[in-house]
Automatic annotation (TrEMBL):
Domain called D-isomer specific 2-hydroxyacid dehydrogenase catalytic: residue spans: 8-319
TM helices/strands, residue ranges: none
Domain D-isomer specific 2-hydroxyacid dehydrogenase NAD-binding span(s) in chain numbering: 111-289
PROSITE patterns: D_2_HYDROXYACID_DH_1
Gene3D superfamilies registered for this protein in UniProt: NAD(P)-binding Rossmann-like Domain
Family per similarity comment: Belongs to the D-isomer specific 2-hydroxyacid dehydrogenase family.
Keyword hit for Membrane: no
Molecular function per GO: glyoxylate reductase (NADPH) activity; hydroxypyruvate reductase [NAD(P)H] activity; NAD binding
Keyword tags: Oxidoreductase
Protein name: D-glycerate dehydrogenase
Amino acid sequence: MEKKRIYITRKLNEAVLAPYADLFEIRMWGKEEEPVPRDILLKEVKDIDGLFCMLSDKIDEELLQHAHNLKVVSNLAVGYDNIDLEAASEHGVIATNTPDVLTETTADLGFALLMATARRIVEANHYIKTNKWQNWAPFLLAGADIHHKTIGIVGMGRIGEAIARRAKGFGMNILYHNRSRKPAAEEELQATYVSFEQLIGEADFIVSVVPFTPETNKIFNKAAFEKMKQTAIFINISRGATVDEDALVEAIRTKTIKAAGLDVFEVEPITSDHPLMQLDNVVCIPHIGSASEETRTEMIRLCMDNIAGVLSGTGAKTAIR
C-alpha cells in the first residue's frame, strides 16, 4: 500500500519523527529558523495528504487550490489565525492545533516575563555586562514588588488560569476579564471577575492572554493605557495584534505606565531598531512562550498524531472546531 505523503514546513528533529516513518512519506523544509518560501510551499502541497505547518505559514484559498489531495492541516500552535478555516472546510480539509500540552510551559514563561520586567532583570544583567556596576546603592535598579500586588488577567482560558495559580502562590489579588465568567476558577483561585475597564484601572500587572479576534484587535490601545495606573506593568503573551504598539511606545515614553514585557509583536520578527527595543523598561523576547524542549517535542508529536488520525480515519485528537 502506498504511503500517505506529508510535508513539514520547518526542519525538525529526525528522532521525533522516526516513529512515523513507516506510516508516511515525509518531506521537510531544510531550515529550522527560516520559513519555507511561499513559491516552494505552493509546489510542495500539490501532491500531499497532510501538511504540518507553523503560525508563520499562511494557509489560505490560494494554497488550498494548489493542494489537490490535502486532507489535514496540523498547526504547531494553539493559535490558528494563519489558517482560513472557512476555506479549509470548503475544501474538505480538517485543521488541527496543539492546545493543552503547552499550557503550563507558556504560563511559566508569562510569569517569568512578568518577574523579569518587574525586577528589571534584563536591564540589571546588561548593567554588569557594560561595566556600569561600580558601587552599591540603596535604590540601584530598584524594581517593583510582585507579592501581594493585584494581577489582572485578560483572557481566562487554560493559560490564564495557569498564570492565576502561579499568582496565587505569590499572595496576589487576582482579577480577570473573559468573554464568559468562570465560576470554578473563581472558587479555586479566589479570582474576581470584573469588566475590562475596571481591570486595567485597578491592576498593578495586566497580563494579556486573549486570542486574536476582530474584538481583541488592538484592544490595548491609547485609551486603555491611559486608564492604567502610572505604576502598571503590561505583559503580552497572546498575540501582537492585540496591542497598538505605537500607543504602547508612547505610554512608556511619557510614563503613562511603568514598564512592559512582550513575547509577541504585531509583525514578527522584530529587529534591534524597533522602537520598543529602544526602551530600557521594556523586555522583549522572541515568541518563545512554549519553547521548552519537553513541550515543543510534545507539540510535534501531537501534530503528527493529528495527521495520522485524520489520514487513518480514526479522527484528529485536537481538531479546531
